Amino acid sequence: MKFLTEYRNSEWVKQSLSAIEKATTKRWNIMEICGGQTHSLVKNGLLELLPENIGMIHGPGCPVCVTPASLIDKAVSLMEQDVVLCSFGDMLRVPGSEKSLLEAKAEGGRLQMLYSPLEAVQLAKENPDKQIVFFAVGFETTAPSNALSVVQSSKLGLDNFSLLVSQVLVIPAMESILDDPYCNVNAFLGAGHVCSITGYKDYRPLAEKYKVPIVVSGFEPAELLLAIHRVVLQLEQGRHEVENCYERIVCVDGNAHAKKIMEEVFETGAQEWRGIGIIPDSGLVIKEKYKNFDAVKKFSLKDSKKHIKNQCVAGEILRGVKKPKECPEFGKNCNPSHPLGAPMVSSEGACAAYYNYV
Ligand code: SF4
Asked: What atom in ligand 1 is closest to the CA of residue 330?
């Protein structure tokens, strides 16, 4: 397949590995932000092929993994109020403090799996007697379509559609990781699909402030290795610049239309991250102008005070402090059929990637 097989070319992979080996003179720890990149590194065996001195640290860029249990609890409480909760399929088995969406459905809750928030708008249009809530989860990649669903609903005058929002932002998360006293990250691979929306110029102040190279990367083996090579060259030469190794998708300013619709509906606000806690200005919240489409306000949803009682160390996994196999539950009480934490549920979660491929 064009634009895919060439990025899996074994000759390119060998050349990049050899270039990384030649350029590396000391230990460097590189965090890939995105769960899709983690998955590709693990699935393609790149962690074993990289030189010993290159340590890949898996970051918090799996949206399912970072959605807090308190938000799942809110979604469950909506289902118990006879609301139709619509969600992407990957959220269905993520544990809340007491139950997942799928378990709530088994108890009689109304749950609809969809592929787009615009399908939920259509559902609301066709069912004016039902309240439809879309679970709007994700990084900057999903925010434009979620924003569009609000604008469309507003134009249609729908009063039975709203969003339960858990939109997270990459740059504040990177800053929080760099501020952590246990941080041992020397450089980042930037998340390619997020940068396709945001562009990458906003990373420059971060690279400058913390003196860390940031190289935007794609997801195929040859792309990841090219980006790692560029990171290593910067580290070895004492540079800390923002580079783009995903030029086939990403441009410096990102997607102007997508950013405009995000800004129309959302503004930044404090956001809770699963296992990490609240990071200021790390999320998107619905603006006052569209408050009628905010399910938390519409249904007066309160924060749950319940806590998950198990030994899941998802927070340490998501901050890159621990690797999945260092969790005492990994492969014992926790596996993809019986996940104790979100990183084992999601196909982009580091624990699921290690379970399936390492
Ligand atoms: S292996 Fe399971 S319990 Fe351990 S951190 Fe991962 S998801 Fe949580």
From this structure: 1
